[in-house]
Design goal:
Layout (H helix, E strand, L loop, with lengths): L1 E4 L13 E4 L4 H14 L21 H12 L1
Parallel strand pairs: 1-2
Amino acid sequence: MTVTDTYFCKNLEEFHPNIISTASLAEADLARAIMLACVRSQEPPSTYGNPGYLRDEDYPFMAELRDAVLAELC
């Protein structure tokens, strides 16, 4: 579990369920976020893939790049 603050237009809580963001670092808000992290850490960890960030294929452009390099070499 990670507790962090939001900043500008970025909220890391949207990236992964093991991230807890708080808009304020005031003592009460930070304490609530830490308490939530403690409660969530009691649950078994689960694997999570962020479909908006991660893709199934590591380098989808690799075949096209390979062909372009081979075309230049030949």
